[in-house]
Design goal:
heterodimer, A: 360 residues, mainly alpha, 13 helices, 2 strands, 67% helix, globular, B: 195 residues, alpha+beta, Alpha-Beta Plaits, 3-stranded antiparallel sheet, two-stranded antiparallel ribbon, 6 helices, 7 strands, 25% helix, elongated
Chain lengths: 360, 195
Amino acid sequence: MIELPTLGWQSIVILVVFGVSLLIATYCTYAERVIAAFLQDRVGPDRAGPFGLLQPLADAVKLFTKEEFFPAGANKALFILGPCLAMITALMSSAVIPFGNVIQFGNNVFNLQGIEVNIGMLWVFGIVSLGVYGVMIGGWASNNKFSLLGAIRAGSQNISYELAMGMSLIAVLMISGTLSLREITLQQSAAGEWHFWNIVKQPLGFIIFLVCAFAETNRTPFDLPECETELVGGYHTEYSSMKMGLYLFAEYVNVFVASAVMSVLYFGGFNFPFQYELRDWFVNNQGWALTSAQNLISVLGLLGLFAKIFGFIFFFMWVRWTLPRFRYDQLMRLGWTILIPLAIFNILLTGGLILGGIIK
Amino acid sequence: MQSLSNRAKKLEAKPMTLAERAYLPAIFQGLSITMRHFFRAATKRQVTVRYPDEVRPFSPIFRGLHVLKRDEQGRERCTACGLCAVACPAEAITMVAGERKKGEEGLYREEKYAVSYEINMLRCIFCGLCEEACPKAAVYLQPDKMAPPRFERDEFIYGKDRLVEPVDPQARSIRGIQLTPEQAAALAQRMAQPA
C-alpha cells in the first residue's frame, strides 16, 4: 500500500487553496467593476482582452509600477507591516474551510480541506479578528489624522460587530455541538432522510451573521474605515503602489472567506440537494463503484460550494452598489442596540426550540 | 404665525413603523431596483457609445470643419472676394487674393483666386456665416468632420492645403458627406466632359 505523506498532501491542498483565494480575489476586482457598471447601466472594463478579462493583470502591472511613497514622519517598518498583516490574516483563515468531501483513490483518502481541526470555527474567528491589526497598524504608521481616524473606526467597528457575529454563531454551535467546520457541513446532510441546511433552523442568526460579515469585511454599507467623503481614503489614504493593492486584495480575500464561511455554516457547504440519491443512482443504475460515485459527488459538491461562494460574493457587490453608507452613530447603534440583543434573543429562541425538541 | 397664503400645510414626522425601522424591506426594494438595472445592462441595452469603435452619428445640419469646394471640372470655386472674412464674427478668416495667370484655367474657376486662404480654428465659432456669405458656393462647413485637438497653436491655422477638397472625385464629398461610388462615378463623368 502506497501511502502519501499526509503533510505533503496537505501542503499541496493549502497551496491550491492559497492560489484559488488569490485568483478569486484578483477576479473579484474585475467582477466588482463589471457588476458596478451593470448595476449603473454602464459597460465596465472591456478593453483588456476578451470582455476585459485581462483587466486584473493590467491593474497589477499598474500597481507594481506606481511610485512607492512613504509619508514624512511615517514609521517605516510598521507602514510596510500593515498591508502585509492584512494580507496574511486574510489568507490564513481560508485554510480550515472544507471545500469538498473526501476523494478516495484505492486506500488513499484525501480531504479537500487545508487543515482539519476540531476548532475550525474558532480559528476563522480568531484570524478574522487579527485582521483588524493590519488596518490599525497601517493607519497608525501613516502619521496622518485621516488614516488614524479610519483605523480607529475600523477597530471599534470590528470589535462591535464581532460580538454580535460571535453570538449569532453560538446558536449554530448549539445545534451542531461542534466547532469543526467539516462536522458542521456533514451534519447538514445525511443519506436517506431529510436534513435541512442550517439556514432553515437559523434564519435570524443568518441575517445577523450576514450583516456582521459586511461590517467585518469593511464593505458598504459599513465601509466607514475608508469613508472617502469624510476621511479622504481612511486607513489607506497614504498608501500607494502595491501596498495599496495588498489592502484592496485583502478586502476581497476577506469577502471570499466570509462568503465561504457563510456557505459552510448556513448553506450546507459542499452538500447539494439529492446528492445521495444521485450517488445511489450511479451505483445502482450505471454500475459504478461506490467510491467513484462518491468521488463524483465530492467534485460536484466542490463546484456547488464555489457556486454558493460566488453567489455570496455577488451579493456583497450587489449590496455595495445599492446601499449608501451608514452614519457612524447609526452603525454603532445598529451594532450595539439592535444586533447584539437580537443575537441574544436568537440564542434563547434556539435553546427553547432545542429543549422543545422542534430542532435538533 | 398666521400663514399669508393659507396654503401652508402642517407636517408632522410620523413615527416609523417596525418594518421601516428594520431597514430590511427598504433594502430589498433597493436591491430589486438595482437588479432590474443589472439585467437591463446585461442584456445589452446599454446607452454607452463605445467611442473609438462606435461614433455617435452627427446631425445632418451639424457645422463642422470647413471645406473649400471645387466645381465639376475640379477647379477651385473661391474667388477671394473676402465676403466670408467680412461676415466672420470671430475674424477667423484671412486670405490673399491673386490674379489667375494664363494656363491656370484648369485650376481656378474665376480670374481672381485665393493665393492663400487661412482659417484659425481656435477663433472660429462654427456659426456658418461664411457659408451663407459666399456668393460662389465655395466654402462649406462639413457635417461629419471636426477640427481635431492638437498640441500646437499654429497647427490650428488651416491653410489651403487642408481646406481645399481633393481633386480625386473618389475622395470628394458633397458638403462634407463622403460620396457613394455611384455619385463619385457621375462626378468623374461630368469632369471628363470638356468645359
